Amino acid sequence: MTDLAREKEWASWLRLAIAGDSHAYHKFLTAFTPHLRVMARKRCDQFGAPASEAEDVVQEVLLTIHLKRGTWDPSRPLGPWLSAIVRNKVVDSLRRRGRQSVPLEDVIATLKTDERIAASDRIDIEQILGKLKDPQRTIVQSISIEGSSVRETADRLEMTEVAVRVSLHRALKGLAALYSGRAT
Amino acid sequence: MKTEELIELLVQDTPDRLNLDHALMHAATAATLIAAISFFAVIGLRADFGTAIETGRFLFKFLITGSLTLTGGMVMFRIGKPGVPVQLTALGLLVPALAMIAAAILELLVMPSETWVTRMIGHNSSLCLTIIPFLSVGPLACFLYALRYAAPTRPAVAGAVAGLVAAGIAATFYAANCDDDSPLFVMLWYPIAISIVAGTGALLGHRLLRW
Q1: pLDDT tens digit string along A43-64?
Q2: Where are the domains of chain B?
Q3: What value of ipTM does the predicted structure carry?
Q4: The domain A124-184 is classified under which CATH number: 3.30.450.20, 1.10.10.10, 3.10.20.310, 3.40.50.300?
Q5: What's the topology of domain A1-122?
Q6: Partners of residue A72 in chain B, C-beta under 8 Å
Q7: Residues with Cβ < 8 Å from B202, sequence gap 6 or more?
Q8: Which end of chain B is more exposed for a tag (fewer CB within 10 A), N or C?
Q9: Chain A residues lying within 8 Å of B19, measured CB to CB
Q10: pTM confidence score
Q11: How many CA atoms lie within 13 A of B90 on its CB side?
Q12: Best residue in B2, B4, B11 to probe A by mutation, most A CBs within 10 Å?
């Protein structure tokens, strides 16, 4: 599949997703993530960050795309929008983790020193999840890790579906805020 | 959390009903209403509005403030959208600037030189410098609020643009009250007032519009 054809397919899925089709949204996110991962790994190399940080960056970018999807004009091509968000957020994310862009020659040297501090610097997703308050944390765990639907979660926690959705939305916004507030 | 799990969360999240364009349009409506209510409640039209509206100089002020609002608005609608080029649209901001300069030159050509300084300094400068920022507060707040849905590459610039549009709205109302109609007055004092608002917008944008 050519780049352009793939971009158009993603755009059609995202268009449906914005109209409320969660199945199409799932297809888009799942198709896009591997490409995002490759870009994140490249940038991690450039910035002298260990490859293990790439997945954190991937998640942060996905969260941003999700929260800012209202900024895509569906009548415009998807490519430039996606590239701009990824480009800005990946660099932003790595900078906030204390990574500076290093010239290629220094990458090996930097990698060696950075490995030592990498473990403590690394943003621990589990720790961040731990910062969410209940019921948000329970809802997030229920839907993401246990794979329950909103309806099942609502039944189990004896909340209305609407309340669960509102809580989930707030949790995602909180997650994004925690990511960005973390490394200062 | 594994990425597949995050994707599950994202998919289950409520779809965004509002997109950036709608948010900005609501903000523009609210901004105009707030400015209008503040203006008519606190300041009001100039007493001789009926006769002033027949003079070219008076009407020209609205051409300048109106075009600032419109061209600034065009940039504002684009600046929050990643991947959308904004430079060409930003050139539109030259329109109010050039119009103002052209009118000033015309004034200098037409009016005797003894009158230039008095016309330029006017007697409403302190009103101009306070009323325009005052009327801009509500509109700027509306636009910044809407731009929180946006993803601007340079948050401070986006804030400054919001300031320009807010100031354009405020200046349009102010011009209906001010009786210093000379383009020389407009050229000296309005940009100062507008810069105060744009600068405030930039500072607030830098803080509030990060993503």
Answers
A1: 888 877 787 888 888 999 999 9
A2: 18-208
A3: 0.81
A4: 1.10.10.10
A5: Rna Polymerase Sigma Factor; Chain: A (1.10.1740)
A6: 81
A7: B156, B157, B159, B160, B163
A8: N
A9: 18, 70-71
A10: 0.81
A11: 11
A12: B11
